[in-house]
Write a structure and sequence with these properties.
By secondary structure, this protein is an alpha+beta fold. The chain folds into two domains: about 160 residues, Ribosomal Protein S5, domain 2; about 120 residues, GHMP kinase, C-terminal domain (Alpha-Beta Plaits, 2-Layer Sandwich), CATH 3.30.70.890. The protein contains ten helices and eleven strands. Strands 1, 2, 3, 4, 5, 6 and 8 form a seven-stranded mixed beta sheet that branches. Strand 1 and strand 2 form a beta hairpin. The chain is globular and about 55 Å long. Bound molecules: adenosine-5'-triphosphate (ATP). Adenosine-5'-triphosphate binds next to helix 1 and helix 2. Adenosine-5'-triphosphate (ATP) binds next to helix 1 and helix 2.
């Protein structure tokens, strides 16, 4: 039997790094939402007790450095499964882009194995396994639009954000999330109000949502990578309602209520960057 699971990318409607904790992690408040750009995972059982991960991107690790491999190892161990598994990942989400690709693949792997082996594991049980792989995995298991706090592991589901078009632009640079965290001084950064942003979403107030969107990691990433600001400026020039960096970058996204505006941004940015995607928010 073969089953398929979709793994949607996330965008940060808001990201506030509050302060550095005693344990070395940063205390965060974020609002994330899923979009319909997704990786696709297929699952197949194997008679022999082993884990095989395949992907269409040759540069990605397929051993225990891959989040999906780790998810399979944790779930098999936890549930005492002696059968093997082959998971094939078709990557459509840009890697190391601030779109949560590895985390959403891990979440999809947990969901898929739960179905494949009829395990009836609850969302909470999947979250407990997912957190061992990465702090964004719990959000990816809950999905839709959520308010996230702690080091990323405390997830409170909101209601889906107001529907709109999303233009994603990924410049050809790599940003190391770890380095950005090492360099930032939270006390020197502006702090966007994530609670007001959540309220705006709960009220389905698009104008107010846009007003409260913000990401204080931009203040660290943009001085090192001015192309992020250039993309934001172009998006606004072509009519974006708002333009913001996702996660620690480098992907920038624009929101538009009108499809014609979103298409204009796509056309305007295509000559500037190779990777441009026009997607919808997920309900
Ligand atoms: P985030 O927004 O959570 O910071 P990201 O989009 O910046 O995530 P990922 O796409 O998750 O970053 O990739 C980060 C690193 O994780 C990559 O360098 C990659 O080698 C590793 N990785 C492990 N498993 C996967 C996977 N299934 N898909 C993508 N990257 C993976």
């Amino acid at each position: 039997m073969e089953i398929i699971e979709k793994a949607p990318a996330k965008i940060n409607l808001g990201l506030d790094v509050l302060y550095k904790r005693e344990d070395g992690y940063h205390e965060l408040e974020m609002v994330m939402s899923s979009v319909d750009l997704a990786d696709r995972l297929t699952f197949e059982t194997l008679p022999e007790d082993k884990i095989i991960v395949e992907t269409n991107k040759a540069f990605l690790p397929i051993d225990k450095r891959n989040n999906v491999y780790q998810a399979a190892a944790i779930l098999k161990e936890r549930c005492g499964i002696k059968e093997g598994i082959k998971i094939s990942i078709t990557k459509n989400i840009p890697v190391a882009a601030g779109l949560g690709g590895g985390s959403t693949d891990c979440a999809a792997a947990l969901r898929g194995m739960n179905r494949l082996w009829d395990l009836n594991l609850s969302l909470e049980e999947l979250v407990a396994m997912g957190i061992k792989v990465g702090t964004d995995v719990p959000y990816c298991l809950y999905g839709t639009t959520s308010f996230i706090s702690g080091k990323g592991e405390i997830v409170q589901s909101l209601i889906p954000m107001p529907q709109c078009w999303v233009v994603l632009v990924k410049p050809q640079i790599s940003v190391s999330t770890r380095k950005i965290f090492q360099q930032l001084k939270a006390e020197e950064l502006p702090h966007p109000d994530m609670r007001k942003l959540s309220e705006a979403i709960l009220n389905q107030d698009y104008a107010s949502m846009i007003q409260y969107m913000g990401n204080n990691m931009e203040d660290v990433t943009i001085p090192k990578h001015p192309v992020v600001q250039q993309i934001k400026d172009r998006m606004l020039k072509y009519g974006a309602d708002v333009a913001l960096m996702s996660g620690s970058g480098p992907t920038v996204f624009a929101l538009c209520r009108k499809h014609s505006r979103a298409q204009r941004i796509v056309n305007g940015l295509k000559g500037f960057c190779e990777e441009v995607y026009l997607v919808r928010t997920l309900k």
